Amino acid sequence: xxxxxxxxxxxxxxxxxxxxxxxxxxxxxxxxxxxxxxxxxxxxxxxxxxxxxxxxxxxxxxxxxxxxxxxxxxxxxxxxxxxxxxxxxxxxxxxxxxxxxxxxxxxxxxxxxxxxxxxxxxxxxxxxxxxxxxxxxxxxxxxxxxxxxxxxxxxxxxxxxxxxxxxxxxxxxxxxxxxxxxxxxxxxxxxxxxxxxxxxxxxxxxxxxxxxxxxxxxxxxxxxxxxxxxxxxxxxxxxxxxxxxxxxxxxxxxxxxxxxxxxxxxxxxxxxxxxxxxxxxxxxxxxxxxxxxxxxxxxxxxxxxxxxxxxxxxxxxxxxxxxxxxxxxxxxxxxxxxxxxxxxxxxxxxxxxxxxxxxxxxxxxxxxxxxxxxxxxxxxxxxxxxxxxxxxxxxxxxxxxxxxxxxxxxxxxxxxx
Length: 417
Prior knowledge:
Layout: H1 3-13, H2 20-28, H3 37-46, H4 66-76, H5 89-92, H6 137-146, H7 155-165, H8 167-174, H9 193-201, H10 204-225, E1 228-230, H11 234-244, H12 255-265, E2 284-285, H13 301-309, H14 328-331, E3 344-345, H15 367-376, H16 394-404, E4 411-413
Antiparallel strand pairs: 1-4, 2-3
Protein name: Cytochrome-c peroxidase
Pfam family, one: CCP_MauG
Subcellular location: Periplasm
């Protein structure tokens, strides 16, 4: 089969009509950059326009509802949702920094153990956090609120705040707020000994009502977070122009950047895990990243499976809006694979150049350090690394870093979904 025929074939697979104009484009694609039809299919699959709308989460009945999005945005930026009145979701997920913080480890009311992950695109993942210990975006939103190093608050504190400051907004989304008795300022099933004792002293109906309000806060915040989307990067502009046969396409990236792109999808094997429009396979891998604390190794995914399975806010829990048949990811979760030991989630690479430092605890300072790590492919200090050493020269490494800097996707709100 001729090259134009192959190109028209993948155009048809992508829904592009194989008209006379398409044949003309196919011929034009024999351009100075010399991408093969197979490479063009890969490049097209990485374009941001190939990202479909995020599916509604069956465990969150208010996902996508404008009233929920509006409430979630208010909660996202409210610093009262913390023990010291100084930390909001936006403190670590800063809009000015692409909804992350640029720190090696997240800092809220204390210092966390891992880096803050960006929230744009998070609604496409079945597992949240670096280790996947939450199975929905709303369950993920709840974790930091009671974490002593992040927001440091308690669910009684939050329920009372919602009751006092957001009653009207809450009831527009979730219906009548339950009547609550006089509550202790801070009671939680996962807080200090005093907070846990105060929680146990509440009657079961009150604990249920408080936890319901708390879960609904997470659902509203998740509805807002799903409106955060990546825009087009220089890489996307180049791919789009190349697929259209635009004669200006070769000039949209430098030769070094295009060489880096070839390495990324070719001999560097980066696209094995960093694929699709979000440049992540959404899975967990051990890549031999050095341990932050040798005395206390972070086991990553292998330690998180029991956490998510026992989470009261998971898809099968009583606060979920899903039917059990809709919780297949949780029901069929892999728990005992030895490759999960020391494995962490593949981060998406959009905007990666603005998100130093790198890896799950900021162990690598620069993109150059990251590429050097993958070139060395060291043995894992815990678990078994999946890396195989690629044959890349120093010059190849510089090209690869140049390409990574083209993934400069802006993050913007899209409130009307």
